[in-house]
Amino acid sequence: MPWVEDDYRRTVTGEARPGRMLPGSAVEVVREVGPGLEFRHVLFDFDGTLSLIREGWPEVMVGMMTEEILATGTPEPADEVARLCREFVAELTGKQTIYQMIRLAEEVRRRGGEPREPAWYKEKYHARLMDRIRERREALRSGAARPEDHLVPGALGVLGALRDRGLPMYLASGTDRTYVVEEAGLLGLAPYFGDRVYGAIDDYTRYSKQMVIEQILRENRVEGSSLLGFGDGYVEIMNVKAAGGVAVAVASDESGRTGRADPWKRDRLVGVGADIVVPDYRDGQALLGYLFRKA
């Protein structure tokens, strides 16, 4: 049966209060995990969790959406329309891109306009995004930039440590699979994931991160408690927790790379049950030491 990803909803009541910091690190334990858990499979989101190639994408999307809504002739001020777009883009971040375009079409129709198909809006947005990130991609392809220049800090160290433990790793992204495969290759991530790379497809109702998790558990005949997940979007955190796994929220500061957790991401991800919050992977040794400590 086709799946449609859920909208964001807080599953943890009350404030996202500070957790316990692992000594000498930026790793925040919101709820204690383990010890003695036997993780068998590891799921990663891509953009913002590992890759920073697409850093700045919300500004591109909001700009395009604002233009489309203003083209309906609405009397709303441009800054109010932009604020609306920022809000619903943020609310839907973590889902496949097409869902944000479906919402754009609804907003155009609500103002008396005749909306294009969501897929048309998606292609227009993606063309603009490619213009913005073309130099980054070309620099990686030519060798002028190192993969580390466009990865969340410390990512390669954590991936290497997980691979050394013999754990199969999976990429599951809301970005189209074609681009995930290409950009993972540019970043040198292909050896860590092999063919275990998943992303959006044309029929968006036949792909979701939840479906990927269910496939992992079904094909490997393991319980959800054996799953460890990393993500900066609510969808993968919520799905990992619903399956019974352990979820690490990567509250990455994509533009500044300050080593401090982005407060908006942190609150959002703790709100759907994240067990641990990290700003990046610079304290990866402390993080994995905690997750894999023996009983």
Description:
- This protein is α/β, with parallel strands linked by helices and 295 residues long.
- Helix content is 44%, strand content 11%.
- β7 (246-250), α10 (263-270) and β8 (276-278) form a beta-alpha-beta unit.
- The longest helix has 25 residues, at 118-142.
Q: What would the CATH topology of the largest domain be?
A: Rossmann fold
| Average residue-wise pLDDT | 94
* Biggest sheet architecture: 8 strands, mixed
What sort of overall outline do the alpha carbons produce when their principal axes are compared?
globular
Which residues form runs of ≥5 with pLDDT under 50?
none
Helicity, as a percent range: 40-55%
**The CATH C-level class name of the largest domain:** Alpha Beta
Placed side by side, the strands forming the largest sheet appear as 1-2-8-7-6-3-4-5
Task: Count up the domains.
Answer: 2
Q: How far is the first residue's CA from the last residue's CA? A: 40 Å
The name of the CATH superfamily of the largest domain reads HAD superfamily/HAD-like
Percentage of residues in strands: 5-15%
Brief synopsis:
By secondary structure, the chain is α/β, with parallel strands linked by helices.
